[in-house]
Write a structure and sequence with these properties.
This protein has 523 residues and is of the alpha+beta class. It is built from 17 helices and 18 strands. The strands form four sheets. Strands 1, 2, 3, 4, 5 and 6 form a six-stranded antiparallel β-sheet that branches. A five-stranded antiparallel β-sheet has the order 8-7-11-10-9. Strands 13-14-12-17-18 form a five-stranded mixed β-sheet, sandwiched between helices.
Length: 523
């Protein structure tokens, strides 16, 4: 913050007295023009932020379904061609996800033959040549596919598919897909509770309407309005004017997702948009009239206004006391700006100190204190939302030998590399922490015991890959204990104890493995 050129209190008083003489009409015109443009831009940015949030919610929902399919695609029943048992497993996965009762799971081979579909009893006749956009691409590049809207051969209704490859002996043998009805996304839109008169719609990559807040049954499967189609093709965020399929002229914002290649548009009817701006203008005109009537009293009120600027430092000072990050906007007084700059510098130092207090200095991971705090917070949410949480307790095998043989510098580098692999292997929603020495832990929110144990087994292999530091190489492995809420324990302390106990069982069983805590016990 620059303070040397800011006016002093005395010079500010002189300028304010002079400002009383400036023609009120000129000030009113300038203020109204500026406020009109500012309000319009603010409404547009607010609308765009809402569209981004809604698009993010759609992406999270699609990613959650894709993650479940990826985990299900690793089932050993597929490699054994035991489709009947896999069918039961798929039904169990859907039953465990109550929010996915509108989804069906199907297994197709490269020729498009459906081997099972949870929408039909096992063994019931199914299409022998099912095709949907992107089916061949799965077998060519082995990447998951999110299709555009199409008519399903089993449901005979509009549907879209998320498909993932199924690898057998290193090759893509099948694709496992989840069929999703557009009504699921209509519910996501309705959950936003947009103001009356607003219109929101979700479009696939080709501009086909997937869901809509108005007249869903009438418009689903149809192409977007021409202006919207033109802007969807650019794959960028846009603010523009358009006409809806009902013929309503709306002020529209468009948000595009690079993940799903879908878009969301929200429109406010121009009448509602201009009405809000008209009300703002009326308020500004009234404020201008009041300013004209009170111009003679401004001089003696100046001192109070300056005092109010000084009092503007009270809020940031209180925020600093609470340990929050402080920002003090320019207060247009040199003395006040200097104090504000000092508050911001103190805030930066406090934030840095808090970060150091909650994170491991060597690896940058969360430390034990932050780990315990996050686990307690997440357990409270799990209890409220009836969801699961898993903890992986990780202890490195052979670290001491490497540290003794190569020295602490190599040992520290090894710990940093282990931390990096843990972060790379984990999801963004997981918390990775160093508890001390060569012990680490991972909190996996929304993950049950079996899924966490499966992840832990893969993590053991990842951590056991040789570590290379210049001309030196180090060989270590990891023993991991897995415990879950509510299967194993109900509190953070007992949950960590169970994970720790399971880790020592892994150590005793020969190391380099993951062991699950027994679900039935309670401490």
């Amino acid at each position: 913050m620059k303070t040397k050129r800011a006016p002093t209190i005395r010079s500010k008083l002189l300028l304010l007295v002079i400002a009383c003489v400036v023609p009120a009409a000129l000030m009113a015109v300038t203020l109204i023009t500026y406020e009109y443009q500012r309000t319009r831009e603010q409404l547009s940015q607010t609308l765009l932020g809402t569209a981004r949030a809604m698009m993010s919610g759609v992406d999270r929902d699609l990613a959650s379904i894709e993650s479940s399919l990826v985990a299900l695609a690793t089932s050993p029943h597929l490699a054994a061609n035991d489709f009947h048992t896999f069918y039961d497993q798929a039904r169990q996965v859907l039953a465990a996800r109550a929010e996915d009762d509108d989804i069906n799971i199907a297994l197709l081979d490269i020729d498009g033959k459906q081997h099972l579909n949870t929408r039909r009893p096992f063994g019931a006749p199914l299409p022998v040549q099912s095709q949907f956009p992107g089916l061949k691409a799965i077998y060519e590049d082995g990447k998951p596919v999110i299709t555009d809207l199409f008519i399903g051969q089993v449901t005979l209704t509009p549907i879209l598919v998320i498909a993932v490859p199924v690898y057998i002996n290193g090759k893509v043998a099948y694709n496992l897909n989840a069929g999703i009805f557009p009504q699921r996304f209509e519910e996501l839109l309705q959950q936003q509770k947009l103001p009356a008169g607003w219109i929101a719609a979700i479009f696939d990559s080709k501009g086909t309407i997937v869901a809509r807040t108005r007249e869903m049954e009438r418009f689903v499967g149809k192409k977007a309005a021409p202006e919207v189609m033109e802007n969807i093709s650019t794959n960028n965020e846009k603010i523009f004017s358009s006409t809806t399929l009902e013929g309503v002229t709306v002020h529209t914002v468009l948000s595009h997702s690079e993940i799903s290649n879908w878009s969301i548009a929200i429109g406010i009817p121009n009448e509602a948009f201009t009405l809000e701006l008209r009300n703002t203008l009326l308020k500004l005109i009234l404020a201008t009239l009041i300013l004209l009537a009170g111009s003679l009293a401004i001089a003696w009120m100046i001192g109070g206004r300056i005092a109010a600027s000084i009092r503007g430092l009270t809020g940031p000072a209180l925020e600093l006391g609470r340990g929050k990050k402080v920002y003090v906007p320019p207060l247009h007084l040199r003395e006040a700006d200097e104090v504000g700059a000092s508050l911001m510098r103190a805030s930066e130092m406090l934030q840095k100190a808090q970060h150091q207090a909650n994170h491991d200095v060597l690896t940058g991971l969360a430390n034990r204190g932050l780990f315990d705090e996050i686990v307690n917070q997440q357990l409270a949410l799990c209890e409220r939302n009836q969801t699961s949480l898993s903890i992986l307790y990780i202890d490195l095998d052979g670290f001491k030998a490497v540290n003794d043989a190569y020295g602490h510098e190599i040992g520290d580098q090894l710990l940093c590399e282990v931390a990096a692999r843990l972060k790379e292997s984990s999801r963004h929603s997981d918390l990775v922490a160093r508890l001390g020495g060569d012990e680490f832990a991972i909190v996996m929110v929304g993950t049950g015991l079996k899924d966490a144990a499966f992840f832990a087994e893969k993590l053991v292999e990842n951590l056991s890959v040789v570590y290379v530091f210049g001309n030196l190489s180090a060989h270590i492995s990891a023993s991991i204990g897995v415990a879950s809420y509510p299967d194993c324990a109900l509190t953070s302390d007992t949950l960590l104890q169970y994970a720790d106990r399971a880790m020592y069982q892994a150590k005793g069983a020969g190391r380099r493995q993951a062991v699950m805590a027994p679900p039935a016990e309670r401490m």
